[in-house]
Structures are given as structure tokens and as C-alpha cells.
Design goal:
Chloramphenicol Acetyltransferase; five-stranded mixed sheet; transferase; acyltransferase; 479 residues; elongated; transit peptide; disordered N terminus; Dihydrolipoamide acetyltransferase component of pyruvate dehydrogenase complex
């Protein structure tokens, strides 16, 4: 059976499940055009077949687990242009990146419902796909006659990797239109129908999806619907005193010439994650690390493209391999899991927000491959082209502000991770040895914020000691 059209015998039309070749591909609206095709078998029996055309809806996909709406960056195809299965149609901005959305079906981009720069919730229709060129005008009329269709939001599809196919979802009304209608009524409506001897099967429902309500049964029985009198208006409140007015002010007025700027999708996602992190009990531990040997190693490998971020991520990954509890995660507050991979996410500031590209298997990758991978991830992050698995699979986060001269800071723990490391700048520091002799050494202060439900003080102290030993004797980083 071809995906572009469905052939249905008249005997099978009573079964809604057999009326479509791919149930998820049918538009929620009734499909208007039908053609009758007559086939004659050798035994001269006559069979009547029906060819049903399709106008599919292109939905806003969920490109990440935190995405609730998406913004149309640009339409790659124009109205009336022919599309092939697997071809990218539109670029959508999620809360983390810009991603191409492709179609599962051949056809024509008949109508664009959500234009460039506009926002639509996950699951809303953003365009219409016609099966044949002859149906383009019909699809345009359909889009023009249903301006509020994008406001109906079905359950969002699961997050997928890019390119993310926008799969059309079936409508209960469309499925039911091909077979006998099942009577759906509220319990109170059934009780009234039995009480007044009304055939509930003959009552036309006015509720959601044709559901029969109590008022429908009363109307069928010729009974005036009961009208509940409106509640009396509340008594007027007493005029507040000047003191009460001063205490109930929710926010101070805007300053002159101030303006309100709404969050971007990325800023909204960051805000949501930061608020969520407040529910996690955390604690912080700081540790000074001697970086003389690491600085010397960096000068040797820098011409080969190795960055300080890659060196620190590699050192953190090797330390996490010896202390897996710091790499663990607790998501439900009742249990925690040891992650089998050490994926170090590194915070990167980009225009309009913050994102954390992930260096997967940071403890196992060669330092030079790790640096190359990091360069690729940063380039994708700057262009908002990261795939979901490249920014949401971190098990431990590293935030480095040392290149800005910041000597110390605390980082906020990302939801779903056990710890985050904040790295400050390496600065010359006067230190005294055990014999009382003074010298100047380069030191950096490392602060780690951890989830106290799974990581305890002794665990974090042991991890930091291991990290310091690796940094102070960095030969193992190049092995």
C-alpha cells in the first residue's frame, strides 16, 4: 500500500483503523475529495474502491525535553514548492538551538500557517502539506478558514534529534467519521435520559468531541434547563488606609525611560532550570590547586590546538572515574543512579544566553581528539546548531571564568546532575613550604557545588584531592 494514498473497500469503511495506511498522517479536518474506482475480478464480481486524498498538517515538534514552544526562524521552502520525503522544510528555534525540521512525506507545501519570526506551541500546526498539486488551493482555503487551528495543542511528541520530522497526529473526530459513531455521554446525562425515557442514541451532543451533556438530554425531553441564579455581588471592600496600600504594592514602578524586554526561548529555559535547581539541597567546597606544571604543559600543547578548557575537562573526567558518586545523579528525590559514562558539560556564553556543550566520555578520549571535539562543539554552539544529545547529556558540569581574570566564584548546580565545578584564574601566590621558606607559585581556586542528597563532604574533598594531583602532575593527561 503506498504512503501517498489509501485504497479502501466499501466493506472496510466501518473499521476506522483500516481506513488509513499510516494513521499518524491524516489531517484532523475531514478529507473532502473522494474518487470512485471500479475493479472487476475474473469471477465478474464487482468491487468499488475509494481513493482518498490527504492534506497533512506540519506540526511544531518538541526538539528538547524542556521545549514548550518554538519560533520559526525561516522557511526553507516556499508555498507551492514540491517536497520530497526527508527534505528539510523549516528552521525552528527551540530553547537551546536552531534545528531543521523535515517531512516524512512527498507532496507540496500548500500553506504556511505560522510565518517567520512567529511562535507556536509544541504540537500546533505550522503548515499544510498537500499530496497533489491540485489540492494546494483547497489546502490554502482550509488554512484561511481555520485561523485558530494553531491554538489547539495536542500532546507534544517526544524529543528527537535533528533533523526532527514533524509528524502529523490523527484527530479523534477524523477517525470516528469513517465508522459508526459511538455514543459518549456524561454520567449525569445518562441518568437523566433513563429518568425521562429519552433514547440517548438519538440525542446530538454539544459537549467536547460530541459528548452528550445533561442540558442536551433536557432539551430532547422538552424540559427547560435549570438555570442557577448568579451569586450576589460581594460587598464593596473598605477603602484601604495609606499604610495598607504601601504594604500591598507588589513591585515598584518602572523608572523613567525604562523598558521591558521579554525573555528569549533560551533565556526562558535558563530561568526555568535555575528556579528548578533551588529545590535541590546543595553545599560548596573550595580547593586551591598549584598550576605551574599544568601551565608548562599548556604552553607545549597549545600550538597543536589544545585549549585550557580541554585540559581541565580531561582532568575532571579522570578524577570522576575514581569517584563515581560525584558523577551520579538524583532526579526523583528517592533514589540516585551511577552514570555509566562521564560526560563533562562545559558552560559557554553565547549571544543572548548560555549553553553547555557536552564532551562525551571525557575520561577516555585522547587529549587532542577531545580538543578537536571541543572546537567543533563551540562552533555549533555559536551558530545555534547543536543537536539535543550534544547539550543535554552531561553528567558533570565545568564552568571556567579564569580567562576573564575572575579568581573565585560559585556555580549553580544544573538540574539532574550531582556536581558542578567553578574554575577561577591561575594567579601568582606567595606560599610557604614545610621548612618555612617562601616562594611564588601559580595557584587557582576551584569551587565545587554538589547535591548533598548523594554527595557528602568527604566524597567531594576526596574528589578535589584527586583532581589536584592530576593537575599538579599532568603527564597522565597526554597518555
Amino acid at each position: 500500500m503506498a504512503a501517498s494514498s489509501s485504497f479502501l473497500s466499501t466493506a472496510s469503511l466501518s473499521n476506522p483503523k483500516s481506513t488509513i495506511s499510516f494513521a499518524s498522517s491524516v489531517s484532523p479536518a475531514p478529507i473532502p475529495s473522494l474518487r470512485r474506482v471500479v475493479f472487476r475480478s475474473p469471477s465478474s464480481h464487482r468491487r468499488v474502491m475509494t481513493v482518498r486524498s490527504k492534506i497533512r498538517e506540519i506540526f511544531m515538534p518538541a526538539l528538547s525535553s524542556t521545549m514548550t514552544e518554538g519560533k520559526i526562524v525561516s522557511w526553507i521552502k516556499t508555498e507551492g514548492e514540491k517536497l520530497a520525503k526527508g527534505e528539510s522544510v523549516v528552521v525552528v528555534e527551540s530553547d537551546k538551538a536552531d534545528m531543521d525540521v523535515e517531512t516524512f512525506y512527498d507532496g507540496y507545501l500548500a500553506a504556511i500557517v505560522v510565518g517567520e519570526g512567529e511562535t507556536a506551541p509544541v504540537g500546533a500546526a505550522i503548515g499544510l502539506l498537500a499530496e497533489t498539486e491540485a489540492e494546494i488551493e483547497e489546502a490554502k482555503n482550509k488554512a484561511a478558514s481555520k485561523p485558530s487551528s494553531s491554538a489547539v495543542v495536542p500532546s507534544p511528541p517526544p524529543a528527537t534529534s535533528s533533523p526532527a520530522p514533524a509528524i502529523a497526529q490523527p484527530s479523534p473526530a477524523a477517525a470516528a467519521s469513517d465508522g459508526p459513531r459511538k455514543t459518549v455521554a456524561t454520567p449525569h446525562a445518562k441518568k437523566l435520559a433513563k429518568q425521562h425515557k429519552v433514547d440517548i442514541g438519538s440525542v446530538a451532543g454539544t459537549g467536547p468531541f460530541g459528548r452528550i451533556t445533561a442540558s442536551d438530554v433536557e432539551a430532547a425531553a422538552g424540559i427547560a434547563p435549570t438555570v442557577t441564579p448568579p451569586p450576589p455581588p460581594p460587598p464593596p471592600a473598605a477603602a484601604p488606609t495609606p499604610t495598607a496600600k504601601a504594604t500591598t504594592t507588589s513591585s515598584p514602578p518602572l523608572l523613567p525611560d525604562a523598558s521591558i524586554v521579554p525573555f528569549t526561548a533560551m533565556q526562558s529555559a535558563v530561568s526555568k532550570n535555575m528556579i528548578e535547581s533551588l529545590s535541590v539541597p546543595t553545599f560548596r567546597v573550595g580547593y586551591p590547586v598549584n598550576t605551574d606544571a599544568l601551565d608548562a604543559l599548556y604552553e607545549k600543547v597549545k600550538p597543536k590546538g589544545v585549549t585550557m578548557t580541554a585540559l581541565l575537562a580531561k582532568a575532571a573526567g579522570m578524577a570522576l572515574a575514581q569517584h563515581p558518586v560525584v558523577n551520579a545523579s538524583c532526579k526523583d528525590g528517592k533514589s540516585f543512579s551511577y552514570n555509566s559514562n562521564i560526560n563533562v558539560a562545559v558552560a559557554v556564553a553565547i549571544n543572548g544566553g548560555l549553553i553547555t556543550p557536552v564532551l562525551q566520555d571525557a575520561d577516555k578520549l585522547d587529549l587532542y581528539l577531545l580538543s578537536q571535539k571541543w572546537k567543533e562543539l563551540v562552533g555549533k554552539a555559536r551558530n545555534k546548531q547543536l543537536q539535543p544529545h550534544e547539550y543535554n547529556s552531561g553528567t558533570f558540569t565545568l564552568s571556567n571564568l579564569g580567562m576573564f581574570g575572575v579568581d573565585r566564584f560559585d556555580a549553580i548546580l544544573p538540574p539532574g546532575q550531582g556536581a558542578i565545578m567553578a574554575v577561577g584564574a591561575s594567579k601568582p601566590t606567595v606560599v610557604a613550604d614545610k621548612d618555612g621558606f617562601f616562594s611564588v607559585k601559580n595557584k587557582m581556586l576551584v569551587n565545587v557545588t554538589a547535591d548533598h542528597r548523594i554527595v557528602y563532604g568527604a566524597d567531594l574533598a576526596a574528589f578535589l584531592q584527586t583532581f589536584a594531583k592530576i593537575v599538579e602532575n599532568p603527564d597522565s593527561l597526554t597518555l
